[in-house]
Amino acid sequence: MLAELDQLRAQAETDLAGVQSALELDTARVRFLGRQGALAQLGERMKSLAKEERPAAGKKLNEVRTAVTAAFESAAQRFAARAEAGALAGVDVTLPGTPVLPAGALHPLTQLQDRAVQIFRRMGFALADGPDVDDEFHCFDALNTPPDHPARNEQDTFYLPDGRLLRTHTSTVQIRTMETQPPPVRVISPGAAYRRDEVDATHLAQFNQMEGLVVDEGVTVADLKGTLEFFFRELFGAKTAVRFRPHFFPFTEPSFEVDLKSPALRGGERWLEICGCGMVDPAVFQRVNGSRGDQAYDAEKYTGYAFGFGLERLAMILLELPDIRLLIENDVRFLGQFR
Q1: Long-range contact set of residues 197-204: C-beta below 8 Å, sequence gap at least 24
Q2: Does residue 259 contact residue 271 with C-beta atoms inside 8 Å?
Q3: CA 225 to CA 219: how far, in whole Å?
Q4: DSSP H helical segments within the chain, as ranges?
Q5: What DSSP state is assigned to residue 324?
Q6: Which of 29, 126, 311, 314 is least enclosed by beta carbons within 10 angstroms?
Q7: Can you tell me the distance from the alpha carbon of 273 to that of 271, in angstroms, rounded to the nearest whole number?
Q8: How confident is the model at residue 96 (pLDDT cuts 50, 70, 90)?
């Protein structure tokens, strides 16, 4: 049997070295190493050997199996190398490689919003959100806006057939927050607003607002001024000057327009109107209490302030953009400047 094993080893090594195709290689594997192959058959014959012959025969069988397996693996590697060489044969290594596209980046409006949110978070504000499609109560009635107010005209607001509308400001989120949360409240509500404006260099029908609301005991105009002054100086630089001018909004009393003058803004020493704000009108608290069915927002106990500004206007000033439509045209040549 030892001689047969030596003969089988020589035959297998010769046959595996001479195979010319993957099919021949697999056929040789089955013939020598398969479950019914030559090595398996010789292994079965071990049972018929004399007891003293089995150790030598078993040792020789393992040596032959190892040698035949190595020969098969060598032949397989040879075919794999040949296949790889064939695949690369048609590759022109002198051709330029596929260009690596530059990594994307956040839209400049998103960058500005994230920066604003970070500043307000440092002052303890939480984020609040609400639906873009809302009703007249949350958009107008609860905000002390009378039925004959121009903002409620169909020429100014997008109304839906069922009577709902696209919110004209994110102040709706302030009302919804107060309906679900008793004082104290300290939130900001960034999001989209919609108005029937003609789209031109300074107006869009859809734009982004950042509004804030604070309600607590003892809140004063000084708190409002301190918050906005801190925010705008963090955003535009320590040399930013902030000016408050009396104004009128239905939902705040007193109300103010906020002007800024900063080296970081276009125009340098020119005052720019940037924000509307004021102390929450007690009538708003009454509307919220009526919606809640309690007196959680007691105007004798709680006061508050609210503010809001457009992110597109801030972006136009900061980036010195001549046309607001640049922010919505998705021209990568323009957006690529703000990576």
Answers
A1: 199/325, 201/322, 201/323, 201/324, 201/325, 202/316, 202/324, 203/324, 204/312, 204/324, 204/325, 204/328
A2: yes
A3: 11
A4: 2-18, 22-33, 38-44, 54-88, 108-122, 136-139, 171-180, 221-236, 282-292, 311-319, 332-335
A5: G
A6: 126
A7: 7
A8: confident
Please report, for the chain, the start and end positions of each structural domain, with discontinuous segments joined by +. 2-88, 108-338
For Cα atoms 195, 306, 298, give the angle at the middle one, nearest 5 degrees. Answer: 120
Q: Which tokens is 216 given? A: 């607590």
Q: How confident is the model at residue 179 (pLDDT cuts 50, 70, 90)?
A: very high
Q: For 102, phi and psi rounded to 5 degrees? A: -65, 150
Burial degree of 222 (CB within 10 A; 0-12, 13-18, 19+): exposed
Q: Is the pLDDT of residue 242 over 90?
A: yes
| pLDDT above 90 (res 55) | no
Task: Answer whether 0.70 is exceeded by the pTM.
Answer: no
Encoded amino acid at 322, one letter: P
Which segments of 191-270 does DSSP mark as H helices, in order?
221-236
SS3 of residue 192 by DSSP: strand
Q: What CATH class has 108-338? A: alpha beta
Show Cβ contacts of residue 197 under 8 Å, excluding neighbours closer than 6 positions.
203, 204, 205
Label residue 264 exposed, middle or buried (CB < 10 Å: 0-12, 13-18, 19+): middle
Number of alpha carbons in the 13 Å side-chain half-sphere of residue 178: 32
Token pair 């169909």: residue: 154
